[in-house]
């Protein structure tokens, strides 16, 4: 019985070579599961980042489309507005400057002819009449030049509007290009980071699984060795118990014989 108590006290998992105690397999499995859960949470965080990047890319594309539509509308408006002054310029030049001069000079000539005839009839009475006719004829071109000045001002305003629209279009195009380049750069950076992190995570997961399998194999082999030793110890204990029982029987027989001899 003392041997059984000693065996129960000394019965624990230990290394057969060095005698050091082994950790429980359940605790090692819990640690491995915790590490796997941490890796899964990291993968979820990375997927959330990818979704955010895709959403940002979609927003950038929407902004680019809106800018393109605005540019198309502005180009159409400029194309509609620009031909009008060009179509009016010939009519303004020919109808506003030359023809009024021609008709005005004819009128002035018709008006100046009687004034010129009067001095011929009465040259001594009105010597200053030719100067008045010449002044009236000189004033007529100034009245005919007013349409040409209005046409030049309208053409200058139209040219200014076209230049401003062109500058706005170029600025919008540059903004669109910069936004697109920034979005593409961010997408490339995020994709590279995601690829690197995913590769690292997969490598770590594979290493963890390999280490876990090795640990399990080592623990299983050690457990098999310990189980074999336990079985051997049990067999030895059974043999010892049988031997003790035999010794007690022999002692009982010897004591009974000694008692019989003493009685005899």
Automatic annotation (TrEMBL):
<dbReference type="InterPro" id="IPR009449">
    <property type="entry name" value="Sec2_N"/>
</dbReference>
<protein>
    <submittedName>
        <fullName>Putative ribosomal protein l32</fullName>
    </submittedName>
</protein>
<keyword id="KW-0687">Ribonucleoprotein</keyword>
<dbReference type="GO" id="GO:0070319">
    <property type="term" value="C:Golgi to plasma membrane transport vesicle"/>
</dbReference>
<feature type="region of interest" description="Disordered">
    <location>
        <begin position="108"/>
        <end position="174"/>
    </location>
</feature>
<dbReference type="GO" id="GO:0006887">
    <property type="term" value="P:exocytosis"/>
</dbReference>
<dbReference type="GO" id="GO:0051286">
    <property type="term" value="C:cell tip"/>
</dbReference>
<dbReference type="GO" id="GO:0005085">
    <property type="term" value="F:guanyl-nucleotide exchange factor activity"/>
</dbReference>
<dbReference type="Pfam" id="PF06428">
    <property type="entry name" value="Sec2p"/>
</dbReference>
<feature type="coiled-coil region">
    <location>
        <begin position="180"/>
        <end position="257"/>
    </location>
</feature>
<feature type="domain" description="GDP/GTP exchange factor Sec2 N-terminal">
    <location>
        <begin position="156"/>
        <end position="243"/>
    </location>
</feature>
<dbReference type="GO" id="GO:0005840">
    <property type="term" value="C:ribosome"/>
</dbReference>
<keyword id="KW-0175">Coiled coil</keyword>
<feature type="compositionally biased region" description="Low complexity">
    <location>
        <begin position="122"/>
        <end position="165"/>
    </location>
</feature>
<keyword id="KW-0689">Ribosomal protein</keyword>
<dbReference type="InterPro" id="IPR040351">
    <property type="entry name" value="RAB3IL/RAB3IP/Sec2"/>
</dbReference>
């Amino acid at each position: 019985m003392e041997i059984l108590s000693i065996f129960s006290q000394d019965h624990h998992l230990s290394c057969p070579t060095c005698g050091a105690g082994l950790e429980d397999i359940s605790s090692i499995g819990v640690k491995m599961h915790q590490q796997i859960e941490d890796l899964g949470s990291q993968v979820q965080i990375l997927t959330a980042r990818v979704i955010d990047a895709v959403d940002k890319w979609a927003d950038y594309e929407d902004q680019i489309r809106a800018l393109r539509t605005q540019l198309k509308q502005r180009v159409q408006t400029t194309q509609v507005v620009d031909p009008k002054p060009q179509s009016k310029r010939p009519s303004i030049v020919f109808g506003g400057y030359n023809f009024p001069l021609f008709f005005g000079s004819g009128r002035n000539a018709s008006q100046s002819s009687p004034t010129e005839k009067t001095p011929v009839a009465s040259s001594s009475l009105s010597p200053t009449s030719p100067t008045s006719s010449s002044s009236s004829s000189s004033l007529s071109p100034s009245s005919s030049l007013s349409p040409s000045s209005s046409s030049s001002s309208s053409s200058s305003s139209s040219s200014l509007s076209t230049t401003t629209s062109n500058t706005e279009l170029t600025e919008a195009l540059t903004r669109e290009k910069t936004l697109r380049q920034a979005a593409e750069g961010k997408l490339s950076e995020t994709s590279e980071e995601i690829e690197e992190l995913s590769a690292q995570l997969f490598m770590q997961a594979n290493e963890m699984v390999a280490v876990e399998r090795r640990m399990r194999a080592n623990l299983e082999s050690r457990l098999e060795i310990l189980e074999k030793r336990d079985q051997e110890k049990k067999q030895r204990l059974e043999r010892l118990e049988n031997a003790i029982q035999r010794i007690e029987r022999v002692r009982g027989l010897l004591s009974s014989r000694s008692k019989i001899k003493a009685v005899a």
